[in-house]
Amino acid sequence: MLSSTYLLTQRAYIQQEYKTTYSADLLKRYLLWTRCYHPHSKFGLHLETNTSGDHKKILLAYVTTPRHEGPEVNREMAEKDTKVLYKAGEKRLGTDEKTFVQIFSERSAAHLAAITSYYHSMYGHSLKKAVKKETSGNFALALLTIVQCAENPAKYFAKVFPLP
């Protein structure tokens, strides 16, 4: 049987190696990865105590908001949401983070993937580029992770969990 000290040391080593290799915090990435594949899991209390600001708002909204996760997309609604996101971000001075939290937490992965497609065709660049321009820090990381998982989860996980 392995001692708990050994396991803690090993866990700390793995986290440090991940941070060195990928310049990212493994625990924060893990929380976001978990959300991509377990949309109805309940760990809101952990998020409540270990996050803050807009990052906390998006994560809590994402884990507590029920949403249909089927492949169906209401194209009219996706186009409307695209325009709303543009108006909440790039079109105005400052960013309306509440709008980003609402759309990113309430819409299905298929709906968000449709929004990314509309965004590019309507505004000439990707939604990811807009998110990077309009947001920062862990809030931006959360939004980008949600978008990337919506667009192509296999590609996202291949990138963050590369094979040796």
Automatic annotation (TrEMBL):
Keywords from the named record: Annexin, Calcium, Calcium/phospholipid-binding, Repeat
InterPro entries: Annexin (IPR001464), Annexin_repeat (IPR018502), Annexin_repeat_CS (IPR018252), Annexin_sf (IPR037104)
Keyword Calcium applies: yes
GO MF annotation list: calcium ion binding; calcium-dependent phospholipid binding; phosphatidylserine binding
A single BP term in Gene Ontology: response to cold
Domain notes: A pair of annexin repeats may form one binding site for calcium and phospholipid.
Protein name: Annexin
Species the sequence originates in: Glycine soja
